[in-house]
């Protein structure tokens, strides 16, 4: 298994900085992106330098620590930093979950001085990061148990990237695949390219090849053909927010994959930490869906592929209804969506 660079890390102690693996440069270049200000982390989240709901949450936790560098900031500054970071992306609930934890730590420390506040915040950010590592490992075990009866070389189809690049640990949607490989199984992963930003082609295929796991890259529109040919025995995806009724928001195109899976009798699984579950939202209809720039569709990666002036609709996510989801895998076990 090749060395896979870590998605993010904190460099130093109090007064240190956040280092991100720049996912906009993969797979051509493996480049780290240092962040020394809250604004730089906000920009990194917005531009998808760091992406994936759990990884965004971890990055946001560390970003709050940057608001109290050198012990000069107050609780007010921390609260303002949390409000600002919350405007970076709207759909991934882990962002708001992590920021709420950091804000609670700051508000509980109103009587402490700057250095003590900084230490408390860094300890909480590190706790969020470590908890994510542990949750990824647990999801991997539960998901691998769920798929344990699949035959050798069984096909598992993925959409977008839900591996280590999307988390602070070993991934969510790909964690069961990695665990199956550790157990000596040889799963074969069918990787949807994931238009328009190609997270499957650029990131998932890169992760799998780095780890020596058999995979085949396909265009999104080929998934039905692969399923019809009997090459897919399970679909495993991540999620950016799960509503109270089990509806799950994930990268655009996931809903279509779920419909195809039902049509072909293929079980469709969602793997996500409980921090992704938003019990304040009754159903997927209330999940805010981020819309991104038209240029991602018309000029993907710098080359124009559509007429100038054409109208574009570019939602970053869609919602899969709970009735299409066979089970949701979390760090606490495997559950029916509803």
Automatic annotation (TrEMBL):
Enzyme class: isomerase
Positions of the catalytic residues: 240
Record protein name field: Methylthioribose-1-phosphate isomerase
Annotated NCBIfam families: eIF-2B_rel, PRK05720.1, salvage_mtnA
Highest taxon of the lineage: Bacteria
Family recorded in the similarity comment: Belongs to the EIF-2B alpha/beta/delta subunits family. MtnA subfamily.
Pathway where this protein functions: Amino-acid biosynthesis; L-methionine biosynthesis via salvage pathway; L-methionine from S-methyl-5-thio-alpha-D-ribose 1-phosphate: step 1/6
Binding site for substrate: 51-53, 89, 199, 250-251
Any one of the GO BP annotations: L-methionine salvage from methylthioadenosine
One annotated GO molecular function: S-methyl-5-thioribose-1-phosphate isomerase activity
InterPro entries linked to this entry: IF-2B-related, IF-M1Pi, IF_2B-like_C, Initiation_fac_2B_a/b/d, M1Pi_N, NagB/RpiA_transferase-like
Site (Transition state stabilizer): 160
EC number per UniProt: 5.3.1.23
Keyword list, A-Z: Amino-acid biosynthesis, Isomerase, Methionine biosynthesis
């Amino acid at each position: 298994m090749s060395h896979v660079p870590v998605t993010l890390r904190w460099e130093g102690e109090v007064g240190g900085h956040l280092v991100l693996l720049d996912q906009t440069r993969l797979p051509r270049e493996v480049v780290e992106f240092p962040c020394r200000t809250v604004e730089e982390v906000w920009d990194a989240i917005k531009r998808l330098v760091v992406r994936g709901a759990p990884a965004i949450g971890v990055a946001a936790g560390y970003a709050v620590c940057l608001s109290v560098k050198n012990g000069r900031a107050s609780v007010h500054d921390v609260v303002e930093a949390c409000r600002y970071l919350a405007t970076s992306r709207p759909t991934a609930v882990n962002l708001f979950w992590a920021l709420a934890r950091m804000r609670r730590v700051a508000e509980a420390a109103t009587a402490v001085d700057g250095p003590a506040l900084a230490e408390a915040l860094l300890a909480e950010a590190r706790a969020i990061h470590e908890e994510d590592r542990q949750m990824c490992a647990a999801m991997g075990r539960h998901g691998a148990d769920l798929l344990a009866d699949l035959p050798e070389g069984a096909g598992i189809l993925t959409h977008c990237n839900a591996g280590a690049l999307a988390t602070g640990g070993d991934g969510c949607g790909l964690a069961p695949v990695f665990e199956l490989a550790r157990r000596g199984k040889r799963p074969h992963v069918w990787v949807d390219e994931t238009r328009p930003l190609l997270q499957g082609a650029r990131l998932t295929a890169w992760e799998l090849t780095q780890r020596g796991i058999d995979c085949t890259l396909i265009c999104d529109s080929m998934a039905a053909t692969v399923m019809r040919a009997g090459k897919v025995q399970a679909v495993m995806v991540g999620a950016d927010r799960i509503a109270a009724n089990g509806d799950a928001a994930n990268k655009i195109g996931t809903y279509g994959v779920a419909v195809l899976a039902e049509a072909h009798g293929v079980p469709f699984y969602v793997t996500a930490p409980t921090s992704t579950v938003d019990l304040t939202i009754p159903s997927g209809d209330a999940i805010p869906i981020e819309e991104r720039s038209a240029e991602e569709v018309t000029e993907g990666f710098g080359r124009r592929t559509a007429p100038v002036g054409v109208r574009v609709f570019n939602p970053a996510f869609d919602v899969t209804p709970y009735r299409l989801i066979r089970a949701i895998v979390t760090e606490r076990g495997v559950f029916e969506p509803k």
